[in-house]
Specification:
two-stranded antiparallel ribbon, cca-adding enzyme, domain 2, seven-stranded mixed beta sheet, alpha+beta, 21 helices
Length: 417
């Protein structure tokens, strides 16, 4: 039996280690056993920071969570229907789950769950490197449970499923396999690659919501284009949508998006707009419908064809800043940012960036009430004057509140002649 107790103590921050040990002690006092499982054990060996811990209890996870949270700062959220709870404290979260087994009535269906042992719980995991557990029982703290050779696969940099039906049972594991492979710079084990190719067509049975969740997780990666490129090479990307491409063009645009975002990660909707940019109208429509995107993402995607049509107008040599504003004012910022990264025209790019950096933020200092006090009657004339003032602001003809007042007086004086 391998014991990694010292590794755990060195890996976890003191306050989190104390909480984990307290959980192990509470479970033991009830005649139950608790384990750290999955990602934290994997990342401990890889020396990768992980403050999202999963704890599996052979017993009552909810009761353990409630007792653990007593007298501690933090927020406890329980889900009695599923026998799970989450304790959050700052950037740290601890998910507590009752050990369970899963069976699948048919490929792609959600599993049927019932209480089980730690061995049952590990068997339901996706890959061997995620199917390790470490006891937090005080008497056996750090004892490693590794029934599927996860530690050996970590050492060999392999992503390997646990059984022949893995991708059939849950086709979304295809995307997780590719995410882990690219994130960790590992490689798919030979038989796992064969099964992935064979069973990826089962994705047709998976709901759009679940597929969208996997896509969003990919877009949260440091280099999501690597996953799409690998998926295309394996013939898997077409099961997300037939028209999607994971080629070098996409990689270049994603890299440009990161460079433009500086230290922050690009917005997911920007990545999404770039991924979908070259889809035609029908393909884009079916992509949105299949993956059931939320309102904001769907708006960004639906904006792509309209913005594409508007880009040629931005190339007009005589276009004033106010003209740029009116062309772009009803388009989504993330879609405009995608166009910045896609266009081959330096002039169009300059105008897109002008809108994003300044024009969209231009507001008048004077209001309708201010104009009324200056003698402008309410109605069509006031509306026309406010629009003209906005044009002048956009074009840099006025820059201050006093400039606006002078321009209004000039118009009023002209009207008296």
């Amino acid at each position: 039996m391998i014991n990694i107790g010292k590794n755990i103590e060195a890996y976890l921050p003191p306050e989190i280690l104390a909480l984990v040990k307290a959980a192990g002690g509470i479970a033991a006092s009830k005649g139950q056993r608790a384990y750290l499982v999955g990602g934290v054990v994997r990342d401990l060996f890889l020396k990768r920071r992980n403050l999202d811990l999963d704890l599996v209890v052979e017993g009552d996870a909810l009761a353990l969570a409630r007792q653990l949270a007593k007298g501690r700062d933090g927020k406890l959220v329980t889900h009695p229907r599923f026998g799970t709870a989450t304790f959050k404290q700052g950037a740290f979260s601890l998910d507590l789950v009752t050990a369970r087994s899963e069976t699948y009535a048919e490929p792609g269906a959600l599993p049927t769950v019932k209480p089980g042992s730690i061995q049952d719980d590990l068997f339901r995991r996706d890959f061997s490197i995620n199917a390790m557990a470490a006891s937090i029982d005080p008497a056996r703290f750090g004892d490693l449970i590794d029934p599927y050779g996860g530690k050996s696969d970590l050492d060999r940099h392999l992503i390997r499923v646990l059984h022949q039906r893995s991708f059939k049972d849950d086709p979304t594991r295809v995307w997780r396999a590719l995410r882990y492979e690219q994130r960790l710079d590992f490689r798919l084990e030979f038989d796992t690659t064969t099964q992935l190719r064979r069973d990826s067509a089962m994705m047709v049975r998976v709901s759009g919501d679940r597929l969208r969740h996997e896509l969003e997780r990919i877009l949260e990666e440091d280099y999501p284009e690597k996953v799409f490129y690998r998926a295309e090479r394996l013939g898997v990307l077409r099961h997300l949508h037939l028209a999607l491409e994971g080629n070098g063009w996409l990689g270049e645009r994603f890299d440009m998006a990161r460079e433009a975002s500086g230290s922050a990660k690009p917005d997911i909707n920007l990545y999404l707009a770039l991924l979908a940019w070259r889809l035609d109208d029908e393909a884009l429509k079916s992509f949105i419908e299949r993956l059931k995107f939320g309102r904001e993402a769907a708006r960004a995607l639906r904006d792509i064809p309209r913005l594409k049509q508007a880009l040629h107008a931005l190339a007009a040599a005589e276009l004033m800043p106010s003209g740029v504003y009116h062309i772009l004012e009803h388009h989504r910022p993330e879609t405009i940012q995608a166009a910045v990264l896609v266009t081959d025209s330096a002039l169009v790019r300059q105008r897109l960036e002008l809108y994003l950096s300044s024009l969209r933020f231009v507001v008048l200092s004077l209001s309708g009430n201010d104009l009324k006090k200056m003698g402008v009657a309410q109605g069509k004339k006031m509306g026309t004057m406010l629009r003209a003032l906005k044009e002048a602001r956009l074009n840099g003809e006025v820059t201050t509140r006093e400039d606006e007042r002078k321009l209004v007086r000039r118009w009023l004086n002209r009207g008296k002649r």
